[in-house]
Amino acid sequence: xxxxxxxxxxxxxxxxxxxxxxxxxxxxxxxxxxxxxxxxxxxxxxxxxxxxxxxxxxxxxxxxxxxxxxxxxxxxxxxxxxxxxxxxxxxxxxxxxxxxxxxxxxxxxxxxxxxxxxxxxxxxxxxxxxxxxxxxxxxxxxxxxxxxxxxxxxxxxxxxxxxxxxxxxxxxxxxxxxxxxxxxxxxxxxxxxxxxxxxxxxxxxxxxxxxxxxxxxxxxxxxxxxxxxxxxxxxxxxxxxxxxxxxxxxxxxxxxxxxxxxxxxxxxxxxxxxxxxxxxxxxxx
Length: 285
Prior knowledge:
Blueprint: E1 2-8, E2 11-18, E3 21-25, H1 31-37, H2 42-51, E4 54-56, E5 62-63, E6 74-78, H3 82-95, H4 99-105, E7 110-115, E8 120-121, E9 126-129, E10 136-137, E11 140-146, E12 152-160, E13 162-163, H5 164-169, H6 174-178, E14 184-192, E15 202-209, E16 212-220, H7 228-235, E17 246-248, E18 266-271, E19 275-283
């Protein structure tokens, strides 16, 4: 099942797609409300949707899709792909130490706080470039969504926009590299966990500048060093997450050295069965 959020006649609504049927889920205004009502598995989430009154999607007055979820918390994992570890280890060589190589090889994954709902954007909205960054990168990632009791109930696509130059200056600047206005894009929909094999998702990203593609790359989640269940177990140790929280699982698509997002760049992230998440980069004042 896919879950979207739209504006219908100016009011937020949840739209579900399941087995060729597309309908408005009555009785809830947001997917966050739906997740909170549902139980502790994707199957119970699907059951809750089917138990609600279904209304046809109108032909007019529909805007969106919007961000598929307003997450109370967004977390991230780092150096989960070998390509990411190698790229960041090169940076560490400039500042001393081998922290990224050790994080990639060690049993405990790197985790960090990424965003709140107010710092997230959805399809068609602008992602931010910090005004004090000269090297900001888009990072396409598979993200999972947490339901009641820390259960993984759905997945979506994410863009973990990051000011790489700040972290390269000093790894202790990671929070400033990661957390700021419009630093995280999510969408275009949620796919319930019963409909996705997270260990085999091909994620592509292209960046257009002035209508021309200036970067394109892809990675498969089969290249993740640890499965989603392993990452999630570490994230939730002594750290209960509120329902609707999102975790970004890391990126395997690395832009070339020195390549930075510029004002007006169009970033498109795509993977089956989600569709495309497209955002424009804007420099924050």
